[in-house]
Amino acid sequence: MSQNTAATATRPRVFSGVQPSGLPHVGNWLGAFRNYVAMQDGYDAIYCIVDYHALTSTHDAERIRRNTTEMALGLLALGLDPEKAILFRQSDRPEHLELTWLLASVTPVTWVERTPSFKEKKRNQPEDVNFALLSYPVLQAADIAIYKARYVPVGKDQAAHLELAREIVRAWNARYGAVFPEPEAVFTDSPIVKGTDGANKMSKSLGNVVEIFGEEETIRRQVMSMVTDTERIRRTDPGRPQACNVCQLHRQFGTDHEAIWEGERSAATGCVDTKRLLAERMLTTFAEARERHRELSERPGYVEEILRAGAERLAPIARETLRECHERMGLGPR
Ligand code: TYM
Fold it and tell me: Which domains does the chain have, with CATH numbers?
């Protein structure tokens, strides 16, 4: 039995990827990373820092390297356990790139051109609409397909990429035979976390994040700067918890959000009180991760060791998938 089949026969496989964007923020955690951690039990879980993907929008070598280490450290601090799940760096498994090419050969250009993220990046970086940017979702499909992963924990912003990944593997399977499972997105109950502006998705590039590992004062300041219910002008106006990002976040950081919401509705509490409470609860929730982050930061070489070992463990699986593809696609000798 091949390694691939052996692994899928025992536990369903999970794969997800994250860009090397530095330390994780609250949006990453609520939308995806808490599922990474939850799914390392009971699944064959593989998580990847996608540094090849980063090249589509940055050409700063130092930044990519530093941010890769920071992201990996953040994930480990948040509870990703290298004894249970594999964590690795994408560029340590270049088979992803070869599979990208093989999948690209069955992917109509129109599919990638209409990807929302491509249209958005074209707008955001008009000076650098590079070819890699267009192939971004094919590489994402290859990341998942190379390990024949079935489940993909992601935030809702990745739903279109996941749908495209399904279409791409379906197109490949239709032509060459059923090799790849169609991957399914797995969402948390907060699949889109809004940023401090209360309007857009929380994202480093928009500068609207609440950090997890920043200084306590920074985190408090970020939370206190959050936009709440824009129709609640005076302290005595009743608040609308459904329209308030701070109230929505309270659902994730305590069990008493109904009482907090009632306080807002009746104007018994003001937005400032509600934000102050949220900041303290976030700090409590992440206290252990922040402590672990401090400890791990003092172990130079630790992250590198984990990433390298992870990539090595994946080598046989990635190679076996490519061998199967070669055989079916007519590449190399019979
Ligand atoms: P990336 O690096 O932007 O984000 C990593 C994960 O965090 C989730 N996320 C959020 N979820 C909810 N609310 C938010 N504000 C928020 N911000 C980030 C993202 O949905 C994601 O799950 N293209 C991917 C990386 C990737 C990948 C893959 C993912 C490459 N290959 C294969 C899955 C499978 C990305 O840029 O994620």
Answer: 13-193+300-329 (3.40.50.620), 214-285 (1.10.240.10)
